[in-house]
Write a structure and sequence with these properties.
Layout: E1 6-10, H1 14-25, E2 29-33, E3 49-50, H2 54-58, E4 63-66, H3 71-81, E5 90-93, H4 99-111, E6 115-118, E7 121-122, H5 125-129, E8 133-138, H6 144-154, E9 155-162, H7 169-198, H8 202-209, H9 217-227, H10 238-254, H11 260-277
Helix pairs in contact: 3-4, 7-9, 7-10, 7-11, 10-11
Length: 299
């Protein structure tokens, strides 16, 4: 089998567009679809073909890759693709969908005889654009030769978590990883807000923890987005982070675990979105510490 594939990418937001672009650059024939066509059109410059419907996008594809907002959106789009989905087509499901939705998506794949890979990714806009994502993947060993070229095009590393995509082991690992990412993001916003309230320069805090066990590159990266007013374009949007935070809380509840920090973090992200920051980088959760947007940076 050739390693050059026909890949259909459904969903061309921040992550999906970057993944489609890297697939095209790797030499694959790429078809893209997005509910808002204008978001997909720029990909024609990279050689991708823009489809008018999900069915047109997936027809005769070797691999269908979904990178949509959530599980229900992914299921709706695959249903729209309908009879254009051929039995035996590989479905790489990269939407962060949560546990219940992943099981439902796998059930759809089984009913339509699709080869299902649970394959969320770790990374934001910059690593996605550079093809440096980490792919978390679960799915059958037989047939991996068809997904490996896809994963190699979009990521620097693939972590296999199991042979049954329906079990959601990749999604489970993604939720655990995202719980840490979102906790660190919200903590960054709160430390900047408290610094502002107490008249402490953030630089003094950074100097205090420099090169010690409390220091963290991610803290500096996210703090800089707030301090330098670089929240757009988003590396990972507030609205998407809020959705993921709720999936984490629900997963904990389903398994008898209280995740108080995650629940509070979800509320902060939702409050920031309601304040008008939904499309900004998730570091904009900083603003949830204030009843109104502060007039000056926390510097």
């Amino acid at each position: 089998m050739t390693d050059k594939l026909t890949v259909s990418v459904l969903g061309t937001g921040i992550m999906g567009a970057a993944m489609a672009r890297n697939l095209a650059r790797a030499g694959h024939a790429v078809r893209v679809w997005n509910r808002t066509r204008a978001k997909a059109e720029p990909l024609t410059a990279d050689g991708a073909q823009v489809a008018d419907t999900p069915a047109e996008a997936v027809r005769d594809a070797d691999v269908v890759l979904t990178m949509l907002h959530d599980g229900p959106a992914a299921l709706d789009v695959l249903r729209e693709a309908g009879s254009a989905l051929r039995p035996g087509t590989v479905w790489v499901q990269s939407t962060t969908a949560g546990l219940d939705a992943t099981a439902e998506l796998a059930g759809f794949a089984r009913a339509h005889e699709l080869v299902f890979y649970d394959a969320p990714v770790l990374g934001t806009r910059q690593p996605a654009e550079a093809g440096q994502l980490t792919v978390l993947a679960a799915g059958p060993t037989a047939g991996r030769e068809r997904v490996t070229p896809v994963f190699d095009a979009v990521g620097a590393r693939t972590v296999w978590t199991g042979e049954d995509g329906a079990a959601g082991s990749a999604t489970r690992l993604k939720l655990v990883a995202n719980s840490w990412v979102l906790a660190a993001t919200n903590a960054t916003g709160e430390v900047l807000a408290l610094s502002k309230a107490l008249g402490v320069r953030p630089e003094d805090f950074f100097a205090l923890i420099a090169d010690g066990p409390l220091d963290m590159g991610y803290l500096h990266a996210k703090a800089a987005l707030v301090l330098e007013d670089r929240l757009t374009p988003a590396q990972f949007a507030v609205a998407t982070a809020a959705k993921d935070a709720r999936l984490i809380v629900e997963a904990g509840q389903r398994h008898g675990v209280r995740l108080d920090v995650a629940a509070a973090g979800a509320e902060r992200l939702e409050r920031a979105a309601a304040q008008g920051h939904a499309d900004e980088d998730m570091a904009a959760a900083y603003f949830a510490s204030f009843d109104e947007k502060p007039g000056a940076s926390p510097a």
